[in-house]
Amino acid sequence: MMGFRSARLMLGVVVTIAVLLAGDVNAQSRRLVKIGALTPSWGPTPAIVGLRDGLQELGYRENEHFVIGVRFTQGNNAELPAAARDLVRQGVDIIVASGGIAGKAAQMATNRIPIVFLGGSDPVRTGLVKSYARPGGNITGIADLEGDLASKRMEIFRELVPGLKRMLLPYDATNEFTVAQLDVYREAARRLGLTLVERPVRTEAEAQAAIAEVRKGEVDGIFSPRAVSLNIPGLILDTAPKLALLTMFDIPFYVEKGGLASYSRSEHELGRQAARLVDKIVKGAKPADLPVEQPTKFELVINMKTAKALGITIPPSVLLRAERVIE
C-alpha cells in the first residue's frame, strides 16, 4: 500500500496543472477568466477536478475560456488567509474555496471578488452567508450537510462491523468547524449505543502520538474527522494497518489508499455543482442573489482488500448499497 506521505508528493506534482474558466462561450467576451482555487488539502481535490469538468460540460474550453490556479496549504489552516490574499494579488476573477475555513479566509481577503465555497458546514451559523436563500455579500456556494452525513457515516460503520463498540475520534482542537461538530458526533454515538474515545490534539506531533498509542483492545475502530488539518486522516491511514484497526473516512481517497470505508457527498459532483454557480456569476449574476445549494449525490466506498486483511466480513446488505467496491 502506498503511504500517505508518498501520496502527498504525488498530489504536489499534480498541482502544476492549470485548470478552469470563462464566460458564456457564445454570448460573453473571449477574455480568459482566472479562477483561484483555495484548499487546505495537498493539491487539486476531486471537487476542483469536478469544477473543471463541469465547466467543460457547459461549453467552456480550458486555457481558452478559463484557467484555474490552485493554492493549497497541506493541512495547515493557519496558512489559508495568506494563500487567499495571494490569489487576490494575482488578480483572479473568482475564488472557489474548499470548505468553510477556506471560505472564511477568502471572505476576509476580499469583499469584491466573487467567492464560491464548496462544502461549507452550516454556513449561516459560521457567518459565511446571511441566509441560504439570499447569501448576501460576495459569496455563495454549496453546504455540505456534514451534521447529517457524520451521523450516517457512524451508522454505516456500525453496520460494517457488527461488534463495533468503541471508536477513537482524534480531532484538531484548534479547528472551530471540527469542534462545532462534536455534539453531532456525540449524539450519533449515543443514539447508536457506541462509545467515542475522544482525543483532542493541537499539533501534528500530538495527533501522531494520540493515534499510535491506541491499542486494538482499547478501541474497535477509528472514526476519522472530516477536516484535513494536522494531517489527522493521513496519520490514521498510515497507522491503523500497523495496529490492525478498522477505519471509517469521509472521502474515497483514503479508502483507495487502504482505508476500510468512506461515506460522503460526492466531491466530484460537488465541483460540478459549483461550476453551474460559477457559470451564472460569469454571465452576470451576483453571488448575493444565488441561493446556497446542497449536495445531490452521495457515495459509499468499501475496500474489500482491507476488509479481508483485517478478517472482516462485510454484510451483503451493506455491499449492495456501495457505489464502489475496491477489490
Task: Give the strand content.
Answer: 15-25%
Class per helix and strand makeup: alpha/beta
Main β-sheet description: 7 strands, mixed
End-to-end span in angstroms?
Answer: 13 Å
- Oligomer classification: single chain
Helix content: 25-40%
- If you average the pLDDT, what whole number results? 89
What is the domain tally? Answer: 2
Q: State the order of secondary-structure elements, H for helix, E for strand.
A: HEHEHEHEEHEHHEHEHEHEHEHHE
Q: In the CATH hierarchy, what is the class of the largest domain?
A: Alpha Beta
Q: Kindly identify the CATH topology of the largest domain.
A: Rossmann fold
Query: Which shape, going by the Cα principal axes?
Result: globular
Q: What is the count of helical runs?
A: 13
The named CATH superfamily of the largest domain: Response regulator
Radius of gyration, in angstroms, nearest whole number: 20 Å
Write structural notes for this entry:
This protein is of the alpha/beta class and 327 residues long. It folds into two domains: 175 residues, Rossmann fold, CATH 3.40.50; 146 residues, Response regulator (Rossmann fold), CATH 3.40.50. 39% of the residues lie in helices and 20% in strands. It has 13 helices and twelve strands. It has a seven-stranded mixed β-sheet with strand order 7-6-8-9-10-11-12, with helices on both faces. Strands 2-1-3-4-5 form a five-stranded parallel β-sheet, sandwiched between helices. Helix 10 links the parallel strand 9 and strand 10. The radius of gyration is 20 Å and the shape is globular.
